[in-house]
Amino acid sequence: MGEASERRILVTGALGQIGMELLRALSFKHGSNAIIATDIRETNDLEKMGIKFQKLDILDLEGLEDIIKNFKINEVYHLAAILSASGEKNPSLCWDINVNGLLNVLELSRKYKYRIFSPSSIAVFGSDVGKIALQNSLLNPSTIYGITKVTGELMAEYYHSSHDVDIRGLRYPGLISWEVMPGGGTTDYAVEIFHAATSSKKYTCFVSEETRLPMMYMKDAIRATLELMDAPSEKLTIRGGYNLPSLSFSAKELSEKIKEEILDFECEYIPDHRQEYANSWPDDVDGSMSEKEWGFSLEYDLDLMCKEMISSLKNN
Ligand code: NAD
Ligand code: AKB
C-alpha cells in the first residue's frame, strides 16, 4: 500500500452502527474522495460528508466487481452482515450474507489484489470457554451468527495462506455508540440503555442484571480498526480475528454507573430470548495478542465512556 492519499476505499454495510462512524474516521484520515460507501439500504445522508454512495447487495457479485473495477479499489472494509439476534430469526439469510457475502469479497480480491478488513466477534466463543476467552480458546458457538463468524475467520486464514490475500480481522466485543442505533444484536441493550436514560429515564433491559459481557466504546473500536489496517503485514500472525482488550461489566454495573449521572434513572430487567445468546458468550476476553503484535490499548474505561455517551446524547 502506498501513501495514505492513494487509498481507494470501499466500505460495505456502510450505513450500520460501525459503518457510519468508520466512514467519518476514514474520510478524516484519507479524504472523502478516497471513499465509496455501499449498503443494501438507500441514503442521502452521505452527500453532506462528500462521500459517494452506491446501493449494493453484497450477494450481487457483478455489482461488487463493477464498483471495485470502476473505482480502482485497493482497500475494502467489509461490514455488511446480519447480527446475532436477527440471525437467529433467519439462519439461512445470516449464513448467506455473512458467509457468501464475505466469499464474494475474498474471491474478487484474488483478481484485484485489494486489502480487506473483515470483522469477527466475541460471538465466535461458546459456553465451553468459561469466563475469560483467550485468543486460542475453543470456537464452539451456539448461535448461527457465531458459526458464520468462525467460518469467516477460517476463510480469512485460508485466503491469506493459500491465495496471498492481505485480510485482517478483529473480534469486536459489544460496541457502544450514540450516533447510529445497533442493528439486531445481543449487546444492543448496552446502547439502548443510554438512549432511554437520556430520554424517558426508564429502561427495561432484555438481559438479567448479572449478565456480564465484553464491551468497548466505539471510538476505541474505530481506532483499533485503523491501527490494525496500518500495522505492517509481517507483524500479524492472525488473520481471522484478534481478541481485543475490552471492558467487562454487568448490566447492573452499567445502569448504576448511568445513575451516577442521571439520578432519577430507573432500570428493570426482564430477560428475553437474547439472554441465552449472552449466556453463551464469555464475560471477558484476553486481548494481549493485539497489544503485543500491533500495540493496541484501550483509551476509554466505563466511567469515561458513560460520561461521553450521556453528554453526546444530551447535546445531539
Ligand atoms: P449493522 O447491523 O449496524 O450494520 C450492517 C449493515 O449491513 C447494515 O447497514 C445493513 O443494511 C447492511 N446489510 C445487510 N445486509 C446486506 C446486504 N445483503 N448487502 C449489503 N449490505 C447489507 O452492524 P454493525 O454493528 O455495523 O456490524 C458491522 C460488522 O461488525 C459485522 O460484521 C458485525 O458482525 C461486526 N460486529 C459488530 C459488533 C457490534 O457490537 N456492533 C460487534 C462484533 C462484531
Ligand atoms: C451482537 O450482539 O450480535 C454483536 C456482536 C457482539 O457481535 N454486537
Notes on the protein architecture:
The chain is of the alpha/beta class. The chain has two domains: 197 residues, Rossmann fold; 94 residues, Alpha-Beta Complex (UDP-galactose 4-epimerase, domain 1), CATH 3.90.25. Helices cover 42% and strands 17% of the residues. The strands form five sheets. The chain has a six-stranded parallel sheet, with helices on both faces. A three-stranded parallel sheet has the order 6-9-13. The longest helix is centred in the first third of the chain and has 22 residues. The protein is globular. It starts with 8 loop residues before the first strand and ends with a helix. The model has no long low-confidence stretch (mean pLDDT 97). Bound molecules: nicotinamide-adenine-dinucleotide (NAD) and 2-amino-3-ketobutyric acid. The site of nicotinamide-adenine-dinucleotide has 28 residues, from helix 1 and strand 10. The site of 2-amino-3-ketobutyric acid has 10 residues, from loops.
Brief synopsis:
This protein is α/β, with parallel strands linked by helices. 42% of the residues lie in helices and 17% in strands. The protein folds into two domains: 4-174 and 218-243, 3-Layer(aba) Sandwich (Rossmann fold); 175-215 and 246-282 and 300-315, Alpha-Beta Complex (UDP-galactose 4-epimerase, domain 1).
